[in-house]
Design goal:
221 residues, mainly alpha, Growth Hormone, Chain: A, 2 domains, 9 helices, 0% strand, elongated, MFS_sugar_transport-like, MFS_dom, MFS_trans_sf
Length: 221
């Protein structure tokens, strides 16, 4: 929690161990116990804490401001949309809504290559995925972010289906099984590259742009 009077409001610094009194260390196993509610210091015998803590902590007060540890990730959806405490369930929901988009996209967008053609569907669906993927970087709140992730998931599975259909029809029957295996080998390599990029790029927005901007431009090359 951000503690007014203990933390700098202009440039707050994450300090997980600032409550280092012996009594507090025996009471609290991890700093996570302090991320949602303030504690009642009067009930802790011989608590050794900074003077500001006594002035600003109240009994079971709810935390409304937070300071995040940015030593590993400089920026995440958790820090941008404050997905902590009562809102922490939205982290898992973000993954769920993306996979729900994948499921529904396979059913509702999968037939598109038969309706508008293979090449056209690849361009349309690739642009769809890139546009909503880039758009999620600029979502003003988590609800908008989740909606854009849902649409990105729909386009992602549909463009993969369109590419597979287009490629299979261009192969001789004896080569089609090998072609399918080759496609998924490249998909696995792409997943590895994405993980490598995530290791070096610790800002989620920059990472998203690095992944989706090239996808959006290659369809018009």
């Amino acid at each position: 929690c951000f503690v007014d009077g203990c933390d700098d409001p202009i440039d707050p610094e994450y300090k997980a161990d600032w409550l280092n009194g012996t009594a507090l260390n025996s009471l609290l196993a991890t700093p996570r116990a302090w991320r949602c509610n303030y504690q009642d210091f009067d009930t802790i015998p011989n608590a050794t804490t900074p003077e500001c803590a006594y002035k600003n902590y109240t009994v079971n007060a709810t935390c409304h401001n937070w300071i995040f540890d940015k030593s590993v990730f400089t920026r995440t959806i958790v820090t941008d949309y404050l997905l902590v405490c009562d809102e922490s369930w939205k982290i898992t929901f973000g993954s769920f809504i993306t996979m729900l988009g994948v499921l529904l996209g396979a059913f509702f967008l999968g037939p598109l290559p038969d309706l508008i053609g293979r090449r056209t569907s690849v361009v349309v669906l690739g642009t769809w995925m890139a546009a909503f993927g880039i758009g999620s970087c600029f979502a003003p709140n988590f609800d908008a972010f989740a909606g854009l992730r849902f649409l990105t998931g729909m386009g992602g599975v549909a463009v993969l289906q369109a590419l597979i259909i287009w490629g299979l029809e261009a192969q001789a029957p004896v080569m089609r099984i090998k072609f399918i295996c080759l496609i998924y080998c490249f998909q696995s390599i792409g997943n590895l590259i994405s993980g490598l990029l995530a290791y070096f790029i610790r800002d989620w927005i920059i990472l998203q742009l690095c992944l989706f901007v090239p996808m959006g431009t290659m369809h018009f090359a």
